[in-house]
């Protein structure tokens, strides 16, 4: 199986290896941290209260197992198709096809939501300007950045992601100051964590249900695998990047949520920019124009996520083309190593997703969002299953030589798969996600029919 990947078109050297360790780290962080954290994660807090902190901690374990699983396979096979190629080699062809199509659709839907969100937040500054102006402007900008050499793209995404990181670190420090009483305000303390119904106001059931959404906060750790095909010295940069990313994401989410819930009663959390815990904390600390600053941060966060998602979609389409699942021309590359045709096809999908986000009825787009959430659960399950087969295939001697290794294999993967199954079951009890799994199964059935038709034609 190792030779199967090594001899495949996926290992073509045409993609330029130019992404450095710091760029890999920030691309992954930028893709994982969206606008939800800055606006307060109100749905998860409503489901679990302060217990959402436990939900983030538990989901961090699942994310850690997935991250190390993908890292092991990526340093062994640093190819553009990543987990799609690994699933095809170590499981079967259908799973390799289905996981890539699912991932591409999930990313395109996310781009539509993020670009329309950018337009909404720009409207708070320029209410007279029509929203389509911002949608078109941001979309053109994203395409232009993705058309650059991958090293230039990585640098752009690095600095956009830095804005998120600096804001989160500043929020944690300000929160610690307000909680401990450093500064002009009276110490807030940690009483809000237990004085409004206790740490678990809705019991462990609330924590369980919140996990179906908190887990999506960590979805992005798999990005490191997709960038492997363009990573500089992947055997060195990928292990270091994945260790840094997973630790930072866990600290950012857990500490940020702890600060939020300590500073404000969980049942009185606001919504929107003005109600964001970040805005309230910075305003209490005397930061001028806190709401305007956070509006800018949220805009850059959404642009950063959309930018990364467009990159991911183009590379997944490139990978599908190389394996013969879509037209061969989609895999053609420009002189700078960018798959322009795949980028243009991705941009068409992005345009369709934006139109859906703007014109589709609220419940219709919510249904599409639910398909994307369930789709990402499917992607993670396939990654874990492929890694179990990968470990069995390469043998103990090769495992011992890996520069990064997941501990307690296969028990870690089995525990993570069981946790994912439990979290998926919880979606049936969350109002906005109750139809996610049935809708995704219908989507999976449709692409399976397409796969079987394609396979017959190939024969």
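^ structure tokens above, recovered residues below v
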């Amino acid at each position: 199986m190792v030779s199967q990947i090594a001899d495949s078109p996926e290992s073509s050297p045409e993609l330029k290896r130019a992404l450095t360790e710091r760029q890999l780290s920030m691309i992954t962080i930028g893709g994982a941290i969206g606008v939800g954290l800055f606006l307060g994660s109100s749905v998860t807090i409503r489901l679990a209260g302060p217990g959402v902190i436990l939900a983030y901690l538990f989901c961090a374990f699942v994310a850690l197992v997935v991250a190390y699983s993908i890292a092991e396979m990526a340093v062994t096979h640093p190819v553009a198709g990543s987990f799609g190629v690994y699933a095809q080699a170590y499981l079967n062809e259908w799973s390799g096809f289905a996981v890539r199509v699912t991932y591409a659709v999930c990313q395109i839907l996310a781009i539509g939501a993020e670009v329309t969100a950018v337009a909404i937040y720009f409207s708070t500054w320029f209410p007279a300007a029509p929203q389509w102006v911002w949608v078109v402007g941001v979309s053109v900008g994203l395409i232009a950045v993705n058309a650059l050499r991958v090293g230039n793209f990585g640098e752009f995404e690095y600095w956009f992601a830095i804005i998120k990181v600096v804001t989160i670190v500043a929020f944690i420090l300000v929160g610690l100051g307000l909680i401990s009483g450093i500064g002009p305000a009276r110490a807030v303390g940690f009483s809000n964590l237990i004085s409004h119904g206790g740490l678990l106001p809705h019991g462990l059931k609330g924590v369980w249900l919140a996990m179906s959404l908190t887990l999506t906060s960590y979805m992005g750790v798999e990005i490191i695998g997709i960038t492997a095909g363009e990573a500089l010295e992947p055997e060195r940069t990928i292990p270091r990047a994945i260790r840094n990313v997973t630790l930072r994401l866990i600290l950012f989410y857990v500490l940020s949520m702890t600060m939020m819930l300590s500073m404000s009663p969980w049942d009185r959390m606001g919504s929107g920019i003005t109600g964001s815990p970040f805005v309230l904390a910075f305003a209490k600390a005397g930061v001028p124009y806190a709401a305007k600053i956070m509006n800018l941060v949220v805009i850059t966060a959404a642009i950063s996520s959309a930018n990364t998602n467009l990159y991911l979609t183009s590379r997944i389409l490139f990978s599908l083309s190389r394996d013969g699942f879509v037209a061969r021309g989609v895999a053609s590359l420009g002189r700078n190593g960018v798959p322009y045709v795949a980028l243009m096809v991705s941009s068409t999908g992005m345009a369709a997703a934006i139109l859906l986000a703007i014109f589709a009825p609220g419940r219709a787009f919510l249904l599409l969002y639910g398909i994307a959430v369930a789709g990402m659960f499917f992607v993670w399950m396939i990654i874990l299953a492929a890694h179990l087969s990968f470990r069995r295939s390469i043998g103990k001697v090769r495992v011992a030589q890996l520069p990064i290794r997941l501990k307690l294999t296969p028990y870690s993967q089995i525990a993570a798969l069981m946790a994912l199954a439990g979290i998926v079951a919880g979606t049936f009890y969350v109002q906005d996600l109750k139809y996610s799994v049935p809708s995704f199964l219908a989507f999976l059935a449709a692409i399976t029919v397409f796969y079987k038709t394609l396979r017959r034609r190939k024969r």
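The two ends are 22 Å apart (CA to CA).
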